Amino acid sequence: MPTERLQKIIAAAGIASRRKAEELITSGLVSVNGQIVTQLGSKADIEHDHIKVNGKLLKGPERPVYLLLNKPKGYVTTVTDPEGRPTVLDLVRGVGARIYPVGRLDYLSEGLLLLTNDGELAQKLMHASSHVAKTYLVKIAGKATEEQIDKLRAGIMLPAERKSLKTAADRVPKVGWKRRSTAVKTAPVLIKLMRDAANPWYEVTLVEGRNRQIRRMFEQIEHHVEKIKRVRYGPLVLDVEPGEFRHLTAQEVAQLKGPARADRLERKAGPSTRPPRRTRAG
């Protein structure tokens, strides 16, 4: 096997993320054949070199694991949560590998979430240039006009988000505000009316992954989002019950690893009156 960068070998073994592996190296916690290595960019061969992390011999790479989870509301999409809330990893215990969520669904959102220990694939899918199409069922408060929806379809300006400076312990705001993002215009979005009602349902497909993007988009046309459920991610379709997960098929993994291509989004799509599937919607 050819030599590879140490941080990549450590990440592939499931010990830590690539960034954390770099910290382990620079902290002097990694040795190769008995010699401490602190230089980033150092290389080794997992098959021939004795690599130790924190005194423990490194095993070969973990088998790749790819999971599709139906995330319920009330779970955070992180590995750990400082506030002690349940995380999506609580739902996938016992898979025999250290996996990470790819992208995020916020605490109140639900639906399709991909988890894997394949750092290379995760990085590719989360990169802005990947243009992976993501489809959501969205319920809003009150009827929006077609004119308002057309504004969202064409792309709308999202103002910068700001958050108060607060302590983790008492969560009391400190003096002043901290800028969290800059104003940005969204890319064109595909939106179809799925159920016409006092509080209608829409199918929303986008190729971006900005923080709380759908909620912020509808806020700009003065409609609160009541529920969000992701039902599709690239070639993956949500097909398990809330809180359940399944392993991806070899074909699905191959499709995800295929060349990145942007799904074309029509600027204006005719409305559809087909109701969403009768599952618990988010």
Compact overview of the structure:
The chain is α+β, with helices and mostly antiparallel strands and 282 residues long. It has helices at residues 6-12, 18-26, 119-126, 146-154, 213-220, 250-257; strands at residues 4-5, 30-32, 35-36, 43-44, 51-53, 56-57, 66-71, 100-102, 110-116, 134-140, 157-158, 162-166, 173-179, 184-185, 190-195, 201-206, 225-233, 236-237, 245-247.
Helix count from the secondary structure assignment: 6
Number of strands: 19
Q: CATH topology of the largest domain, which one?
A: Pseudouridine synthase
Rounded to the nearest angstrom, the radius of gyration is 22 Å
Give the biggest beta sheet. Answer: 9 strands, mixed
CATH class of the largest domain: Alpha Beta
Integer average pLDDT: 85
Estimate the strand proportion.
Answer: 25-35%
CATH superfamily of the largest domain: Pseudouridine synthase
Number of domains: 2
Secondary structure class reads alpha+beta
Distance between the termini: 46 Å
CATH hierarchy: architecture of the largest domain: 2-Layer Sandwich
Write the H/E string, N to C. EHHEEEEEEEEHEHEEEEEEHEEEH
Task: Please render the helix and strand layout as text.
Layout: E1 4-5, H1 6-12, H2 18-26, E2 30-32, E3 35-36, E4 43-44, E5 51-53, E6 56-57, E7 66-71, E8 100-102, E9 110-116, H3 119-126, E10 134-140, H4 146-154, E11 157-158, E12 162-166, E13 173-179, E14 184-185, E15 190-195, E16 201-206, H5 213-220, E17 225-233, E18 236-237, E19 245-247, H6 250-257
Parallel strand pairs: 9-17
Antiparallel strand pairs: 1-4, 2-3, 2-5, 5-6, 7-9, 7-19, 8-9, 10-16, 10-17, 11-14, 12-13, 15-16, 17-18
Helix pairs in contact: 1-2
